[in-house]
Amino acid sequence: MKLILAPGSTAWRLAFFAAVIAVLVVSLLPPSSLPPMGSGWDKAQHASAYVVLGLLGLAAWPRRAGVVLIALLAFGAGIEVLQGLSGWRTAEWGDLLADAIGLAVVGLAYTQRHRLVPAAT
Q1: Can you give the residue ranges of every domain in the chain?
Q2: Quick one: 57 exposed, middle or buried, by C-beta within 10 A (0-12, 13-18, 19+)?
Q3: What is the pLDDT of residue 2?
Q4: pLDDT by residue (tens digit) across 11-41?
Q5: How far apart are the first and last CA of the chain?
Q6: Which letter, b or e, does each residue of 99-115 get, where b requires 16 or more Cβ atoms within 10 Å of its Cβ?
Q7: What's this model's pTM, rounded to 2 decimal places?
C-alpha cells in the first residue's frame, strides 16, 4: 500500500509552502493586526514556527536536510530584514536566534533519528 503522505510527496511540499506563506504573512502584518503578546512569548512563537517549518521541510525533502534548514534560516533572516524596512515592525537579532534554536531542535532530532534508525536499503 502506497502512503499518500510518504516523505517527499507533493502533499508534504504543499503543506510546507502553505506554512512558509503563513509565516511570511503573519511576520509582516502590522502589530495592530495581531493579538497582544506577553513578554518572551514572541521568541517561543518564533522557535515553534521554525520547528514546524523545519519538520515540514524535512518531510518534503528528506534527503536535503542541510539545504532545507539553512534555507529556512536564511528565510528567517530575510523576514527580519523586511520587518526592519516595513516601518511598522522591527528587526531583532533575538528573533533570528529563536528561529535558529527551533531549526537546531529539528536538525538534532533528524540527526538522532537517522543515527539510530538506518535508512532501509
Answers
A1: 40-121
A2: buried
A3: 57
A4: 999 999 999 999 999 999 998 887 776 665 7
A5: 18
A6: bbebbbbbbeebeeeee
A7: 0.86
| Cα gap 88→110, rounded to integer Å | 36
Supply the pLDDT for residue 40. Answer: 58
Q: What is the pLDDT of residue 92?
A: 94
Instruction: For residue 117, give the C-alpha cell.
Output: 534508525
Instruction: Report pLDDT for 118.
Output: 61
Report the SS3 class of residue 93. Answer: helix
SS (H, E, C) 29-73: CCHHHCCCCCCCHHHHHHHHHHHHHHHHHHHHCCCCHHHHHHHHH
Please give the distance of CA 52 from its chain centroid, rounded to a whole number.
5
8 A C-beta contact, residue 27 and residue 79: yes
d(CA 102, CA 29): 22
**Residue type at 81?**
V
- Measuring CA to CA, which residue among 45, 70, 56 is closest to residue 7? 56
